[in-house]
Specification:
One of its GO terms (molecular function) is glycosyltransferase activity. The protein is an alpha/beta fold. It is built from nine helices and eight strands. The longest helix has 16 residues.
């Protein structure tokens, strides 16, 4: 199971694999007799660390001197994109040495509330040009190129993130992350050690302050390095596969 939902109809004695302790606790509350094992998601570290020809900020018409804030994910309310854009707008009133890159499909064929939200995101981003660049959707094979542009990756999720691949991808690429404390990300993004946490409640003002503080931190590079080591130790596919095999073998030995 990768997402949190109410498991109606599942056998109380079901065996289940989840990627985080947060998700394990969620399902234990519904299925106290279930056998729930944690196997985290993994990444191909070589893809994120062996990028011989990375993108340059100038490729997106951004000055190399700009501190680049980076977001990747769904353009939907639960990901907090408008909050981030509003926070960036606040920061621009105080400093002109920053840029924002948003990776995500903001022109999808959504309808109703999601379509209205994406329209709001586009309008906000348009207002913030040329300091904000909306890249659009990027394939999983190409996303690692874009992490090379980031000075800080911000993940302002408004829902209980069960895990968050973007966080471990960014950390694996050696980039510092600033994340929501909602859900499972705090299991591997520890404040001041392997990353930074967003304050609660999240508002444009608090997010702006947290971004400013993270970029100004004298430990920023060390935090990024420790985050990268954390991913190297816990989330390479080889270790994830080994853990999966151990769980399955233990269940069916």
């Amino acid at each position: 199971m990768h997402n949190a939902f109410e498991p109606d109809g599942l056998d109380q004695n079901v065996k289940m694999i989840v990627p985080s302790l947060f998700l394990k606790k969620h399902y234990q509350a519904y299925l106290p007799n279930a056998d729930i094992a944690i196997v985290p998601n993994g990444i191909d570290l070589k893809a994120y660390q062996n990028n011989s020809v990375p993108l340059q900020k100038s490729d997106l018409n951004l000055s190399p001197e700009k501190k680049t804030i980076f977001f990747a994910g769904r353009i939907s309310p639960d990901k907090g994109v408008t909050l981030l854009l509003q926070a960036f707008e606040q920061l621009l009133k105080e400093r002109n040495d920053i840029a924002l890159i948003v990776v995500g499909d903001y022109m999808s064929k959504s309808k109703g509330e999601k379509a209205a939200y994406q329209r709001e995101v586009r309008e906000l981003a348009e207002r913030l040009k040329p300091h904000c660049q909306m890249v659009g959707g990027v394939t999983p094979e190409d996303i690692y190129n874009y992490y090379s542009l980031a000075d800080l990756v911000v993940i302002p999720s408004q829902f209980q993130e069960p895990f968050c691949m973007v966080a471990i991808e960014a950390m694996g690429a050696g980039k510092p992350v600033l994340v929501s404390t909602r859900g499972g990300m705090t299991e591997f993004v520890q404040e001041g050690d392997t990353g930074f946490h967003l304050q609660e409640p999240m508002t444009p003002e608090t997010i702006a302050q947290d971004i400013h503080n993270a970029l100004a931190s004298p430990d920023l590079n060390d935090v990024a390095l420790r985050g990268q080591r954390c991913v190297e130790e816990k989330f390479p596919w080889e270790k994830v596969t080994q853990r999966f095999e151990e769980v399955v073998n233990n269940w069916f030995k």
